[in-house]
Amino acid sequence: MAGNNSEADEEHPKQLPLNEVELAVLESYLKQWDSASGKERNKVWGDATVEARLKAPDMDGKVLKARRHNHGGKKKEAKPPITLGRKWTYRSVMESLRKKELLQKIENDTGVKPREMEMMHHYTRYLADMVNSLTKKEVEEATETAAEWNKQGVLAELQADTAKHKSNNILQYVASEMFKKARMWLFMLLAWKNKEGKLLVSSHDYNDEFGNGESFSKTCDWQVILPEWESYVSKQFGELPKHYSGATPN
Asked: What pTM does this model have?
C-alpha cells in the first residue's frame, strides 16, 4: 500500500552509528584525505576503514547481534593477525616510529598501561593528535621513508618486533587456513634476528590442532634436519645461528 514503509524498513534496517574508536580512527585520516584527490582518496579511505575495523574494541552482544543482522547474519572468517601486503604510508611510518613514545605519554597522562583494555580508547585519539600535529617537513620525510620501506623492507628493529609479537599468530593462521582450504599439513623452520641482533632458529608445528592430526615435532625426530637448516641459514645471514627451541621468537 502506498505510503506504508514498514516492509521497506524491515528489508533495509538502518546502519548503526560508529562507535568512539571507529570515529576517532576515521577522523585521524581527515588531514590525509583533504590533501589527496582521485584514486589517492580511495587508498586513504581503504586504509582508514581497515584500521577502524582492526582497532575497534569488542562490541557488546546487542550491538554485535544487530550489526550481524544488518549484514545478513553471515559469520565472517577469522581476520589475519596482520594486514599482509598493506603498503606503508607516512601515517603508519610515524605510528611505528613513535609508538613507544605514544604509549608512554598515555600512561603518564591517564595511568592506563599498554595491553590494558582501556588503552585502545586513548591510543587512537593520541595517535590522531600526533599525526595532525606533524609539520609539512615531517610528513615529507615520513612519505620518503614509507617509499623506502615499501621497496626495501622496514628497519631491523621493527622486523624483530614483528617476529617477537606477531610471528606465532601469523604462522598459526597460515597453517589453519592451508589445512581448511587445501588440507595441507605444514611444518615450518624459521630463522630470524632478535632485537639484540642474535640469529636464532626454530620450528612451528600446529598439525595436532587441526583434523585430529598428530604433531610432527612431538612424534618425529625433526632435529635430524636441523644441521642442514642451520648450514643454510648461516650462508644467508653470514653468521652462525644460536638454536632456540621455543615456539615463539623473542
From this structure: 0.57
